[in-house]
Amino acid sequence: MDISRPIAPNPYELLPQFPSFTLVSETVTDGDPMPDLCAGVGDNVSPQLSWSGFPEETRSFVLTCFDPDAPTPSGFWHWCVIDLPTSVTSLDLGAGRGNDTLPAGFHVRNDGNEPAYMGAAPPVGDHVHRYIFTVYALDVDTLGIDPADSTPTRVAFTALFHTLATAQLTLTYQR
After folding, report:
1. What structural domains does the chain harbor?
2. What is the pTM of this model?
3. Confidence of residue 1 (pLDDT cuts 50, 70, 90)
4. Which of 27, 68, 103, 143 could make an SS bond with 75 (beta carbons 3.0 to 4.6 A apart)?
């Protein structure tokens, strides 16, 4: 089956623009290919992430990883963590395995229906996919969303109305 199609736009460029802060990693580098360690076809380990420079009035964070290049009309959500307090400004390598590996906050089921990180696994032979890790600095302590009964799309929609600033790191992957 031929799944060739145009490259999807970066959906974050189509949303309201917010001030930015810094998102870095000891595991990956912005703009580089995702290492197999973090890919779903590799070890499926979430990368280490750290963020800084967010607004002083920040009360919590949301973290997501989104692939706009998946062959669906809605992309593919690989990771979603909500209700991270401001005392948490980094996640260790492998923190995405489940709620028990997070220092705080809660996983929302990814598009693979797992409350955890799901690494890159684009279709074999498809074009390069982008994996956009985003941290949202929010003006509320909690989004008021039940993580067991929600979706990353609902989280992104709800967070939009509480976002003070965002930080992003984009990786690529192709098989």
Report:
1. 14-173 (3.90.280.10)
2. 0.97
3. confident
4. 68
